[in-house]
């Protein structure tokens, strides 16, 4: 499926802990749009592979799974082949493995097709991930790259998981490196994207900035 150009998309990209999910959901609610966490799709494929005992270093097998797995990713949770994976996709084990799945070009191709189909069916929406503005929707109405200081990002993840800040910081650094260095759909600031630093900022403050930016795009 080719790129979708006739839908209204707000693309939010950025590294782990930058605030993509929080801001994306809140912005979608404010604007009356639907929201898709594309990272949850890669996490869901990772969970499916683990449940089926498929080795993550077997790219063809993982890609085959990605093409046939039934995913339901929404605000109500994440369901994988009928299994409620809402909690499972956020485990430490999945955190450590999802980058390997997301780096698989055939998996990414399948997920990109599904993301574009999702937008086509809804006439657009707010989508967040790591390559939304650069690959999935390069013609998005608004492209935003969220960032935050490394310490802030680690602290946010520690609050979510209850883990050690230093360990999480090391994990985030490794994830960033893998995401930026992969050859297919790497984490990068899309051409024309607005870089927004969320360090120390309230959600409403960031939403106000994005809403103002969106008005300037119309």
UniProtKB/TrEMBL annotation:
Any Pfam family hit: Cytidylate_kin
Domain Cytidylate kinase: 10-214
Cited InterPro entries: Cytidylate_kin, Cytidylate_kinase_dom, P-loop_NTPase
Gene3D superfamilies in UniProt: P-loop containing nucleotide triphosphate hydrolases
EC number: 2.7.4.25
UniProt-listed CDD domains: CMPK
Reactions catalysed: dCMP + ATP = dCDP + ADP; CMP + ATP = CDP + ADP
Example of a GO MF term: ATP binding
One of the protein's GO biological processes: nucleobase-containing small molecule interconversion
Entry keyword set: ATP-binding, Kinase, Nucleotide-binding, Transferase
HAMAP family: Cytidyl_kinase_type1
Family the entry assigns: Belongs to the cytidylate kinase family. Type 1 subfamily.
Name recorded for this polypeptide: (d)CMP kinase
């Amino acid at each position: 499926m080719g790129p979708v150009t006739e839908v209204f998309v707000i693309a939010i990209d950025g590294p782990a802990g930058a605030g993509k999910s929080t801001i994306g959901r809140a912005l979608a609610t404010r604007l009356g749009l639907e929201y898709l966490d594309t990272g949850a799709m890669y996490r869901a494929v990772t969970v499916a592979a683990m449940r089926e005992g498929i080795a993550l270093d077997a790219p063809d097998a993982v890609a085959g799974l990605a093409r046939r797995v039934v995913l339901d990713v929404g605000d109500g949770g994440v369901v994988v082949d009928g299994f409620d994976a809402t909690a499972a996709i956020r485990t430490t084990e999945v955190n450590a493995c999802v980058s390997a799945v997301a780096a698989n070009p055939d998996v990414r191709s399948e997920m990109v097709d599904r993301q574009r189909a999702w937008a086509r069916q809804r006439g657009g929406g707010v989508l967040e991930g790591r390559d939304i503005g650069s690959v999935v929707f390069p013609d998005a109405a608004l492209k935003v790259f969220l960032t935050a200081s490394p310490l802030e990002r680690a602290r946010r993840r520690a609050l979510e998981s209850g883990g050690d800040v230093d360990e999480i910081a090391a994990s985030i650094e490794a994830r960033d490196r893998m995401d930026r260095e992969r050859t297919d759909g790497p984490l990068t600031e899309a051409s024309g994207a607005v870089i927004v630093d969320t360090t120390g900022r309230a959600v409403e403050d960031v939403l106000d900035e994005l809403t103002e930016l969106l008005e300037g795009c119309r």
